[in-house]
Amino acid sequence: MKAKGLSIAVVTAGALLAGCGGGPGGGGGKISDGGVTLAVLNDQSAVYADLSGKNSVTAVEMAVADYKAKYGDKAVADKIEVISADHQNKPDLANSKAQELYDRRRADVILDVPSSAAALAVATQAKAKKKIFIDIGAATTELEGKQCNKYTFHYGYNTYMLANGTGSTVTADGAKTWYIVYPDYAFGQDMNKSFTAAIQKAGGTVVRSDPTPFPNDNFSTFLLKAPNLNPKPQVLGTMQAGGDLVNLVKQYNEYKLQDKGIDLAVGLMFITDIHSLGPDALAGTTFTDPWYWNANQQNRAWADKFMAKTGTRPSFAHAANYSAALQYLEAVQRAGTDDADAVVKELEGHTFNDVFADNATIRAEDHLLLHDVELAQVKPSSEVKEPWDYEKILKTIPAEQAFQPADGSCRL
Amino acid sequence: MIIRLLARRPVAAGIGLIAALALPWLIYPPVAMDIMAWALLAVAVDLLLGYGGLLSFGHAAFWGTSAYTTGLIALHTGLPFPVAIVGGALAAAALAVPIGYLSVRLSGIYFAMVTLAFAQMIYFIVNQWRDVTGGENGLQGVPRELLGADLSDPFYFYYAGLPFVLLGLWAAWRIVRSPFGQVLVSIRDNPSRARALGYPVDRYRLLAFVLSAALAGLGGGVFAISHGFASLHDVYWTTSGQAVMMVILGGIGTLWGAVLGAAVIVTLNDYLATAGFEETGIVTGAIFVLIVLLFRKGLWGTGRDLLTAARARRARPAESGEDRKVEVATERPAAVAERSGG
Amino acid sequence: MIEQAFNGLVGGAFYALLALGLAVIFGMLGVVNFAHGAFYMLGAFGAFILLDSFGIGFWAALVIVPVLLGLVGMALERLLIRRLSGLDPLYGFLLTFGLALILQDLVRRQYGVQSQQYARPELLGGTLNLGLFDYPAYQVFVLALSAVVCGAVWLLLTRTKIGMIVRASTEKPELTRALGIDVSRWVTPVFGFGIALAGLAGVLAAPMRAINPLMGGDLIIVVFAVVVIGGLGSVFGSVAAGFLIGLVSALGNLYVPALSQTLVFILMAAVLLWRPAGLFGRQEGLT
């Protein structure tokens, strides 16, 4: 019902604009469809619901409020709407929801979209509809590689960054032999490839890597296999994410693999994972975090505002959604229009600093956001001073080292 | 007067055709295409259940196999999409031969369970055969090639996809009214008697199964091209279950009812999802339970009974004789014998 | 290898408990309960909710949850399923399919699809030395308890009068009725009992599997295949096939990982070719 009312309003607005002689995308400070619509498309009910989910919608609303406060009457986009949809982590649903958001609900930009398969589907829609898509939740490098397109941006993190941070560091610290288990879908396959490359580059070897069903709750087959591999691996590298990671770590502790000399390295970890497992289950584990709420005063101040609204501390995905929405609106402001091509032009090559991204550049060649990231370690509960205070920052990896160089595989 | 006019088949078919042509003007065109594709799947299930007495809970296997095959052909060969859809339907029919061969040995509840299990096997195979199917990622970016025509607007694509659906519906209608269909019904009503009369019961059932799978495949192919996507959801058991729900909701053994059921469920799901209510199972499940408990003839059957009753009240009271038989069919969809051993 | 076999038996224990309930219900009511997986899921959620909201631990949950779900099952039989008696058994299947959807999505609405966590009971937290290898104590407990339950049910069915009636009507329904034995009195309690078994399996699953609304849906289809392999009319066959399938899929996982999930269905196809009524089913009277 609501959508129908909206589309009628949209048609009227469009007719009015056309009547004024400057159709949508005509330039000259025009906003199409009577306003700017930001759509958050993510997983609000399945495995990634906690680490992004509905709270990312709140983060985007915070960005809209900050934009309005900053520009007041001068804001190009005076009417901004934030809408959201749940793709339940299914690529087919992401595909049809993206189509619907762009067509029926007149979204100017789609944000977030965790899970690589879903993100690739939405990127295809963005390209077909010539509308902007800023992906935050997915990690696959395909988004800025072979499957890149003019309207798709990748914001926050990717598998190269995770592998390069975690894989290289752990291997360089002496753990030379790895057993990798990865979930059997785009993200996991990509992580497996990236980690293997990073480990080998750092002088280590991958003894074996096994795909696991996704989602999966029983990892006993793989955990039992680990100590019997030849040579025996020093590290079990898990590329599982969300609920699967929680299960795997629980079972890793049950089979007491640490006592058998096999350490745990985690490919992708969100602070929500540490929260649900408790820090002791993961204490000492090294991982790469694109952003940590308690890393500095600026982050903390934003995290306080976020907590006041949601009752929880933000994960990096929440902060990245805020930042992406803000940078999109800033680009609209600079372009003076919400026309997709004009906004893309403003985003490309833009350099900035905000609460999420330090030393940030949106690389023009492949639309990947480069920014400083953190190498972090999980604290044991004895060192945790307040709720959600789980991470110790080991070092900051500068933007130009953290991400892969543009390799020319992307043709926009 | 109007009632009697509606009861004439050409009139009903004409109204149906006009409704199908007008649909994308009335609702969001991709949803209109979904209704038509699902209608084919539901009709395929009804063909088996209503006329063969066999409840297939595994038609997702055929729908999905065709979706993937169609997608693969369109992606890798660049052939026009109608060729891809026909290829998909043929693949579904081919898959139905071994599955049907094993399943038609059983009937009633066993048949339902076994088809469900085989479909789940296909699901696992599609999931694991990543190199071809893309596994969890699905097949993405399936093109809509048709002699260079621009069909990217779903409104125009609807009219390009519609002929396949109409073709499928027409075929189902022909099958049901052919001598083959008559034999199928007599096997449903009394398999032992049909066997005694010399009909090769299993072979008839197998042929019905394969034809039904081809129809489901036609729907799956249209669906894949329409979405530009084939995903694991297409081969998942919930897809089979949804098709069965459409048939029961619309009315078993009526074909038109299956189409109506598809329209209602797709529209309802779309309405709920747009309203932000994703747990559609609560609503569709509850409606389904009510239908099973109280209105086993479904929307179409119940509606027709009401019409007949209205007509009977005006004319002579004995006119409902023809419908009594259908009522028996809708009340007892399966063969009589599966538990007692006929 | 032996460890993996053990793993398989633990997995098989869940199949066996579910198949047992399914078989008993089918025998008495002629209904294949599609919602059986949903009740398994509710069993796991029941344990989770008891601990999370009421601080009631695993051992109490092991009793409370099956009893509660059993009562829910009895109510369901009285209110809904009974109305379909005398109709084609397919309607029972369809009704329970609808119920499964409702239950699954109700829980999804409340808890989302992300997995809930349930801590292992303290007493069974460690590992147990089984001579050849160390094995998590909890898994040993699951295996032992389900074997005891299946054994007890078997004794109940073979040694008591109620059991005789239930078994007779499960395995020879027409004959039982022909002998004038009134089975209708037992329909409601038996349905409740079957549901309670599913609930028990759910509670047992809570500490070792991810608790989410979809956990039952996929499992029940495998259990259907198990029941087809064992023979739907056969109580013993269902249990035996349950453990067998657990074992076969674990070993399959080890030797032919590509087939690990399809193996059970391949086995089902083979059984259908060879003995359409299942390994332990009566071969007459299927078509």
Low-pLDDT runs of chain B: 317-342
Under the CATH scheme, the architecture of chain B is Orthogonal Bundle
CATH class bucket of chain B: Mainly Alpha
The secondary-structure class of chain C comes to: mainly alpha
> Gyration radius of chain C, to the nearest Å?
19 Å
Give an overview of the whole structure:
The complex is a heterotrimer of chains A (412), B (342) and C (287). With 412 residues, chain A is α/β, with parallel strands linked by helices. Chain A contains 13 helices and 15 strands. In chain A, the strands form 4 sheets. Chain A has a 5-stranded parallel β-sheet, with helices on both faces. In chain A, strands 7-6-8-9 form a 4-stranded parallel β-sheet, with helices on both faces. A 3-stranded antiparallel β-sheet of chain A has the order 10-14-15. In chain A, helix 5 packs parallel to helix 6. The two termini of chain A are 38 Å apart. Chain B starts with a helix and ends in an 11-residue tail after the last helix. Chain B is mostly helical. Helix content of chain B is 75%, strand content 1%. Chain C is mostly helical. Chain C has one domain. In chain C, 71% of the residues lie in helices and 2% in strands. In chain C, strands 1-2 form a two-stranded antiparallel sheet. The radius of gyration of chain C is 19 Å and the shape is globular. At the B-C interface, helix 6, helix 12 and helix 14 of B face helix 4, helix 9 and helix 11 of C.
Short description:
The complex is a heterotrimer of chains A (412), B (342) and C (287). With 412 residues, chain A is an alpha/beta fold.
Which helices and strands occur, and which strands form pairs?
The complex is a heterotrimer of chains A (412), B (342) and C (287).
Chain A: H1 2-19, E1 36-42, H2 53-71, E2 80-86, H3 91-103, E3 109-112, H4 116-129, E4 132-135, E5 152-154, H5 159-172, E6 177-183, H6 186-201, E7 205-212, H7 220-225, E8 235-238, H8 242-254, E9 263-266, H9 271-277, E10 286-289, H10 297-310, H11 316-335, H12 340-347, E11 351-352, E12 360-362, E13 369-370, E14 373-378, E15 391-397, H13 399-402
Parallel strand pairs in A: 1-2, 1-3, 3-4, 4-5, 6-7, 6-8, 8-9
Antiparallel strand pairs in A: 10-14, 11-12, 12-13, 14-15
Helix pairs in contact in A: 2-11, 3-4, 5-6, 8-9, 11-12
Chain B: H1 2-7, H2 9-26, H3 29-52, H4 60-77, H5 81-103, H6 108-128, H7 130-133, E1 139-140, H8 154-177, H9 179-189, H10 191-196, H11 201-227, E2 229-230, H12 237-250, H13 256-274, H14 280-294, H15 298-314, H16 321-331
Antiparallel strand pairs in B: 1-2
Helix pairs in contact in B: 2-3, 2-8, 3-8, 3-11, 3-12, 3-13, 4-5, 4-6, 4-11, 5-11, 8-11, 9-11, 12-13, 12-15, 13-15
Chain C: H1 2-29, H2 36-54, H3 58-79, H4 89-111, E1 127-129, E2 134-136, H5 137-159, H6 161-171, H7 173-178, H8 184-205, H9 215-230, H10 235-255, H11 263-274
Antiparallel strand pairs in C: 1-2
